[in-house]
């Protein structure tokens, strides 16, 4: 698998289990790219939905993707703190300038005080029936919900106290160098 280079601008493509495109983020700056982890950042990036509608993200975000875990984490930097939107998803793949994953509907929203809520269980059950998610996939996804909640409680990965500062500083470095 190719690895995106630090400073490179990539797209993020979210698919559904049936192979259909779900959502595309037009530009994300890579802050770290390895075989297992991609950390990126974007701000006011164009997002295109599967039905063709478009919108701009509202705030700067740090995005964390892992090639072995079945979730990704979007850290949204707002005036009143960092909010985390965690997608239960397939591990990512990267090719042709795009990071790609399958979105499995379940989401965990984490608030600045590290309280959290599991979202979209009804949508997950509907899509599980419609698209025929295999039982093994269902088990993997719920195990990864538990793993993700463990990370939140233990302040691991993007939930660690210094994560946001380190990666927002790196994003500022790349933005300043791009402007010059």
What can be said about the biggest beta sheet?
Answer: 7 strands, mixed, barrel
Mean pLDDT score, rounded?
Answer: 96
DSSP helix fraction:
25-40%
In whole angstroms, how far apart are the ends? 32 Å
What is the overall number of helices?
Answer: 3
Per the principal axes of the C-alpha atoms, what is the gross shape?
globular
List SSEs in N-to-C order: EEEEEEEEEEEHHH
The poorly predicted ranges are none
Query: Largest beta sheet: what is the strand line-up?
Result: 1-2-3-6-7-8-10
What is the percentage of strand-forming residues?
A: 35-45%
Rg value: 16 Å
Number of strands: 11
Cofactor: Mg(2+)
Domain DUF402: 18-156
Binding site for Mg(2+) 1: 87, 103, 107
Catalytic activity: a ribonucleoside 5'-diphosphate + H2O = a ribonucleoside 5'-phosphate + phosphate + H(+); a ribonucleoside 5'-triphosphate + H2O = a ribonucleoside 5'-diphosphate + phosphate + H(+)
